[in-house]
Request: fold
Amino acid sequence: MAERPDTPKTAASRYGLLFVISLYCIMPFVWLLTAAFDPGAGLFLEVPAKVDLSNFFRVFQEEDGLLWLMNSLIVCGGATLLVLVLSGFGGYALSRTHAWWKRPFLYAIILVRVIPPTALIVPLYKVMLTCNLAIAGVVRSVVPPDYVRSVMRFVGFIDGYLGLILLLATMHLPLALWIMKTFFDSVSREYEEAAIMDGATFGQRLRRVLLPLAMPGLAASGLFAFIAAWGDFLFPLTFISSPELKMLPLGIYSAFLRDSQIDYGLLAAIAVIYTAPAIIAFALARRFLVQTFGGGLKG
Amino acid sequence: MSSITLTNIRKRFGALEVIKGVDISIADGEFAVFVGPSGCGKSTLLRMIAGLESISDGEFRLDGELMNDVSPDKRGLAMVFQSYALYPHMTVAENIGFSLDLKGVDKAEIKRRVGAVADKLQLGKLLDRKPQALSGGQRQRVAIGRAIIKEPKVILFDEPLSNLDAALRVQMRAELQELHRTTKSTIIYVTHDQVEAMTLADRIVVLSEGQVKQADHPIALYKQPDNLFVGQFIGSPKMNVFQARVEAVDDTSARIVTADGWTVALDSVKGLSAGETVQLGIRPEDLSLAEPSNADITVQAILSERLGMETYVSFQTKGEPAIARIAGDHRIGTGEQVPLKINRNACHLFDSTGRAIRRS
Reply:
């Protein structure tokens, strides 16, 4: 279809429409930001009478904001790290193997993503409870009674970091494995062979050739795993009960439920703090995601 | 000194044998080319020499030393890969110096040696670039640089020119010859392109189905192929083969009649008996345009391809269509009768199994 000449009228209506759509998309973020920096924020979007950081101070002083943030970072960071290591090695192995079970295995693991996590929550709780009892038994036998609770906070499967890290990593590993397997399919074996001919040991091949080559794939799978874990609400809600293990999404949730009078400024400040790491993760990964990868391959 | 001897080399993948007892010896400083159709095992053989594939059976000796179980980096070989496999995250200088860096060679020394190699390959200005910022020919040179910096006893090339366009390929062929002349290193080069093999090699090893069909100087292969396979593989367009029968023999000559009824009298043929079935091989360039009066055969053209300096004429036979390569430009229409003369001295004879019958 031939492009019609742009009369000022059609241009105006086109940009007008775009403006309305963008306004609609950006509105929640604008509301969030204004409310977060407005000490007197209410339910409706308004130009703040005063802009300051008091809402943020309250998150960290009156509430346990820092603790929630640290807990979220530990759990999601731990899960992402685990996903990266397992999907890096696993994806490589799945890409290079010719085993007959490769296809069935790949389709089987993706089922984990297909089933809604909520549907699994009861059996999962059963499994985690059993694991927790086993771990608790071990901990009790080696640690003095006074310290059992504090150790279990780290290694417990229920109300402990380890359980949640393993659970989140398991949920997000299949997609990461697929990404890494597909990624390594596109990495020529000749790179490794060239490194062998150059005299690189296994460790050197891994660190100096394969790892740099795998960075774009790892960035993608790590980003997806982190953002999915970071946004998860159901698992922290189900498996965490101690206040000292509370994570950011639970923090928002409890602040929202707590008072008869909803403190919108505080909620918005927590939400901004909650949003920031995901955006930072994206910004860090983006550099690798867009990195062109044509490199030493065919000219 | 770096000579290579392969004795009864075999490679099995499970029950499948892909290299079936290969004997090859390559002298010091020789440019050897493994050539053959795809799937003939030439790349596998090269990878076995490199150490990237294990040797199922037989012996590989480098300078007399058994290398079967020596790890690839200890063999003193370097390899240039088909894709070049330049590490995309390293600069040209880092790519070339990688093997030295792994060995823990001093940084200043690496820089000096990389500089020397880069000068030799005209890469001096490109040292800080990443591979993706290089042209195909430059990447090729970096891959060569990465090989020669190790001062290897033998350089292995696995179809290195197959990713380049035709013009660049001709240029790189010349550069490879120059490289061989200046470094005097032993080179083993794998290709499926027989023109590349002919122009580069001191010695061509023709492989088919995991076996050596013939190994000799290119011109010897061209002039005296041991068998029909080599005869047809070397030379372009390929040799025409006609099913034929020996009609009469005397002391030194034989009269051969082809399936099309063409009679060719050949001198210097021994050991044939009348009635025997043979295959007559005539290269396209040994058929020339003749006057109708003194033509050996007259054929019906199917197609003519005019290249300017020569004309390829395909013509009908009882077997597969054959080709004549006629000097000069001729306009020959489809279906036209073309009188041809056969260069009898250059005809090849093969027995029914495809083995060459030598003409003295």
